[in-house]
């Protein structure tokens, strides 16, 4: 926004000048934020003379509310900040981020699926207007309609079918086909982030595990004294710990001035 300081990637410094901040925001995302903040739906409805919300025209004009989704892009920056500052452990951050993305994908598709039935006046050719579905939904309120839409959406996302709620006309079939295409990418992303997280940890422990296995095999073949075997195992464990906390491994990410100060403080005696 107009008051949030930013990092200058070229000079590697934090910019706090109000004019520089305002100009950067004005020339970047200001116009996008401005457009998605305009109440376009009532403006268009007033221009078309629509005063009743249940008419067919009003239902489609209501789709303009989807422009509000554009306000959600800062969520990517929130997760990036949490990851950069290590506010949450990687496992919890990955799960929180994936479940957040999953919820919004399923929620948006549930809204689309429900809108198709609503635009079709809940007729028998819609998924929500068939006799089996109406038997479930008739005694319930609007929130139950949304929950069943959400249930259908998450069922499609996970690949589990349902004997009551399923597509029932070409429009629903087209939307679900597009949904399947989105699901392929979303599921690949979710599985990929979790796999990378697990594999990274496994690689770190795998090197030490292989070293221990090779040492045990070597000691069993050579029949060394018990005291010498214990000393070799202790040395291997110490070496593994030292590699993680060695000065060169920790200080390699810092400039030379900080390295010199740290080394001087540690080894001045």
Structure description:
By secondary structure, the chain is mainly α. It contains twelve helices and two strands. The chain has helices at residues 18-26, 30-37, 40-48, 56-61, 74-85, 90-119, 131-137, 142-158, 170-222, 226-245, 247-251, 256-267; strands at residues 6-8, 13-15. It has a two-stranded antiparallel sheet with strand order 1-2. Helix 6 (90-119) crosses helix 8 and helix 9 packs across helix 10 (226-245). 9% of the residues are buried. The model has no long low-confidence stretch (mean pLDDT 78).
Provide a concise account of the structure shown.
This protein is an all-alpha fold and 269 residues long.
Helix/strand layout:
Layout: E1 6-8, E2 13-15, H1 18-26, H2 30-37, H3 40-48, H4 56-61, H5 74-85, H6 90-119, H7 131-137, H8 142-158, H9 170-222, H10 226-245, H11 247-251, H12 256-267
Antiparallel strand pairs: 1-2
Helix pairs in contact: 6-8, 6-9, 9-10
């Amino acid at each position: 926004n107009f008051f949030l300081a930013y990092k200058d990637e070229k000079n590697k410094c934090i910019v706090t000048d109000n004019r520089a901040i305002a100009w950067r925001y004005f020339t970047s995302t200001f116009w996008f934020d401005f457009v998605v903040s305009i109440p376009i739906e009532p403006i268009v409805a007033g221009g078309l003379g629509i005063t009743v919300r249940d008419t067919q025209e009003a239902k489609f004009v209501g789709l303009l509310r989807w422009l509000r989704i554009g306000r959600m892009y800062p969520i990517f920056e929130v997760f990036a900040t949490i990851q950069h500052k290590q506010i949450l452990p990687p496992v919890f951050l990955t799960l929180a981020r994936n479940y957040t993305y999953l919820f919004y994908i399923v929620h948006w598709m549930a809204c689309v699926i429900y809108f198709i039935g609503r635009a079709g006046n809940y007729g028998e050719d819609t998924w929500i207007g068939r006799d089996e579905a109406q038997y479930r939904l008739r005694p319930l309120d609007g929130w139950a309609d949304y929950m069943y839409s959400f249930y259908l959406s998450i069922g499609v996302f996970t690949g589990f079918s349902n004997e009551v709620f399923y597509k029932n006309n070409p429009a629903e079939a087209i939307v679900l086909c597009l949904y399947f295409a989105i699901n392929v990418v979303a599921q690949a992303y979710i599985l990929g982030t979790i796999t990378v997280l697990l594999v990274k940890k496994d690689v770190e422990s795998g090197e030490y595990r292989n070293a221990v296995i090779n040492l045990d095999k070597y000691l069993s073949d050579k029949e060394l004294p018990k005291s010498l075997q214990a000393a070799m195992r202790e040395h291997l464990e110490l070496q593994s710990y030292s590699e993680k906390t060695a000065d060169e491994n920790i200080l390699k990410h810092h400039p030379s001035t900080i390295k010199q100060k740290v080394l001087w403080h540690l080894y001045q005696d």
